[in-house]
Amino acid sequence: MAQLPLRRYEGEVCLVTSPGERARALADIRRESVIGFDTETRPAFKKGESHLPCLAQVATAPAVYLFQLRQPEVFQILAELLAQRRSVKVGVALANDLRPLKQLFAFTEQNVLDLGVVARRCGLTQTGLRNLAGMFLGFRIPKGARTSNWAAPQLSAAQITYAATDAWACRELFLRFQSLGLVPANTGAMIDAATTAE
Q1: What's the pLDDT band for 179 if we cut at 50, 70, 90?
Q2: pLDDT confidence band for 172 (50 / 70 / 90)
Q3: Are 87 and 114 in contact (CB under 8 A)?
Q4: Hey, which of 35, 43, 108, 112 has its CA 20 to 30 A from 166?
């Protein structure tokens, strides 16, 4: 793994803040059949301390959209995305993303697929996103901004790139799994409950 090249997402990233950006993100999401999904949470450094997610990342084919969760205006877009059946939402350890999101807004997830679960069913034991990216995509994902302050009103360029890369890598990983026959070619055939946890 240490010999693999580092890769970061190099496409368009949209930090969704305005009504126009929200409308564009929603239109793009509604056109997609495969969406990479991830969240970021402010790190907890004390025993018993926990925080709700601060950022949701949504990767489509043309762009990655970042939604700061201190803006309630984005909740409706994310709730629609997570509840729609026409697209498969893919990520790693998705239960850890979806459970705390439900403390911020209501939704019933449909057609979600945890890539770590797929990997475990194939007999793999190292099923984190970075390990899977190394094994199946041939690159390393930088860890640099992982423990930064995701609750900051203004995200740094490093945070934006880190967050976009994680969601993009989830989408790329699903497409590789699909090409290898590890997931059904028809994404509408996903089984909701069984794919998020075992």
Answers
A1: very high
A2: very high
A3: no
A4: 108
Segments in 7-156 forming alpha helices (H): 19-31, 75-83, 94-101, 115-121, 129-132
AA identity, residue 101: L
Using CB atoms within 10 Å of the CB of residue 7, give its burial: 0 to 12 exposed, 13 to 18 middle, 19+ buried. middle
Global pTM? 0.90
What is the Cα–Cα distance from 136 to 183, expressed in whole angstroms? 14
Q: What is the DSSP letter of 177?
A: H
CA dihedral 64, 67, 33, 116 (to 10 degrees): 90
- Gap between the Cα atoms of 179 and 110, Å rounded: 23
Angle between helices 75-83 and 19-31 (to 10 degrees): 0
Question: Which amino acid belongs to residue 162?
Answer: Y
Q: Of 133, 109, 95, 121, give the one whose Cα is nearest residue 181.
A: 121
Measured CA to CA, the distance from residue 176 to residue 7 in angstroms comes to 16
Q: What is the pLDDT of residues 83-140, one digit of tens each?
A: 999 999 999 999 999 999 999 999 999 999 999 999 999 899 888 999 999 999 999 9
Count CB atoms within 10 A of the CB of residue 140.
17
